[in-house]
């Protein structure tokens, strides 16, 4: 079960701007139902001002695909095309208060639909029609897309590429190819530091802590017969209780330290973990 923010849940249950703009000036279609996600974005552009006056979407996909598409249309309205083309997939994810990393490909799909729509408005070829080499045949992902998404989001591992593009998430045949692209991409350059995390609200911080504990920590403890429970979060203090085999484990202190380290790495540097 994915941990979604309230904004994702809200836009999934009550999506805005669903449908098709009448006589659209720009259309962006990406993905395919065969690959599991598809999005059609239609825009109405005021010729005088160059501003997007209406934006609607139709999508086939999961909760985060619907929420990401709805978020995109909200971000677009009132922007000029020049402003709109600066929107990144991270902006879409930020608008939603974040997405599970395995669902970041939904925000990438939104950004691609936008780029395709803008290209259609300007009479340019679709970005996907430029004859790029397809690396992942399962999900129809090109080398250009892997490179672009890796650079824009500072991705360095195949797992991250799969989260953001789905490439490598099927039969796995393309994984050596993806590894080679990443090696080539970052070999000569120092990997840039990711953007500073935006300051989290308390609710976002608690949701992120729960997410990290559920996905990164508990499965490892459970594999050894242990477990934990999140009791409370007081500012930067995360209060947990070790459960099952962890209660009597002589290495309990080390376990708590490693949980703290993981939360520092993935949530915030100032996290302290206390076990009760
Ligand atoms: S070719 Fe990429 S996962 Fe199958």
Question: In short, what is this structure?
Answer:
43% of the residues lie in helices and 18% in strands. The protein is built from ten helices and eight strands. The strands form three sheets. A three-stranded antiparallel beta sheet has the order 1-2-3. Strands 6-7-8 form a three-stranded mixed beta sheet, covered by helices on one side.
Give short descriptive properties of this protein.
binds FE2/S2 (inorganic) cluster; 18% strand; 276 residues; alpha+beta; globular
What this model shows, in words?
- This protein has 276 residues and is an alpha+beta fold.
- The protein has 10 helices and 8 strands.
- It has helices spanning 6-13, 63-76, 81-84, 89-95, 104-121, 143-153, 158-165, 175-187, 202-223, 252-266, and strands spanning 26-32, 37-45, 52-60, 134-136, 141-142, 226-234, 237-244, 272-275.
- β1 (26-32) and β2 (37-45) form a beta hairpin.
- α1 crosses α2.
- The radius of gyration is 21 Å and the shape is globular.
- The chain binds FE2/S2 (inorganic) cluster.
- The site of FE2/S2 (inorganic) cluster (FES) has 11 residues, from loops.
Question: What is the overall number of helices?
Answer: 10
Hetero ligands? FE2/S2 (inorganic) cluster
Helix percent reads: 40-55%
Give me the secondary-structure category: alpha+beta
The count of β-strands is 8
Q: Are there runs of 5+ residues with pLDDT below 50, and where?
A: 189-195
Oligomeric state: single chain
Largest sheet: 3 strands, antiparallel
Mean pLDDT: 87
SSE topology string: HEEEHHHHEEHHHHEEHE
Proportion of residues in extended strands: 15-25%
Question: In order across it, which strands form the biggest sheet?
Answer: 1-2-3
Q: What Rg do the Cα atoms give?
A: 21 Å
* Approximate shape: globular
Gap between N and C termini: 27 Å
């Amino acid at each position: 079960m994915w941990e979604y923010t309230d904004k994702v849940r809200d836009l999934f249950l009550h999506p805005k701007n669903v449908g098709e703009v009448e006589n659209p000036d720009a259309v962006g279609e990406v993905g395919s139902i065969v690959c599991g996600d598809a999005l059609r974005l239609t825009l109405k552009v005021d010729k005088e001002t160059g501003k997007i006056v209406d934006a609607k979407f139709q999508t086939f996909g999961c909760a985060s695909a619907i929420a990401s598409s709805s978020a995109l249309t909200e971000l677009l309205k009132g922007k000029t095309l020049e402003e709109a083309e600066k929107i990144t997939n991270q902006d879409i994810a930020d608008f939603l208060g974040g997405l599970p990393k395995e669902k970041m490909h939904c925000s990438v799909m939104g950004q691609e639909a936008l780029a395709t729509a803008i290209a259609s408005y300007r009479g340019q070829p679709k970005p996907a029609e430029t004859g790029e080499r397809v690396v992942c045949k399962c999900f129809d992902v090109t080398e250009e897309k892997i490179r672009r998404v890796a650079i824009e989001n500072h991705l360095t591992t195949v797992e991250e590429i799969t989260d953001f593009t789905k490439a490598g998430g099927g039969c796995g045949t393309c994984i050596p190819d993806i590894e080679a692209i990443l090696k080539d991409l970052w070999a000569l350059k120092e990997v840039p530091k990711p953007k500073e995390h935006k300051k989290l609200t308390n609710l976002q911080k608690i949701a992120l802590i729960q997410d990290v504990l559920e996905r990164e920590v508990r499965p490892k403890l459970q594999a050894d017969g242990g477990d934990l429970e999140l009791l409370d979060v007081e500012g930067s203090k995360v209060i947990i209780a070790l459960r099952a085999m962890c209660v009597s484990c002589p290495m309990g202190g080390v376990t708590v330290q490693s949980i703290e380290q993981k939360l520092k790495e993935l949530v915030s540097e100032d996290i302290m973990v206390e076990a009760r």
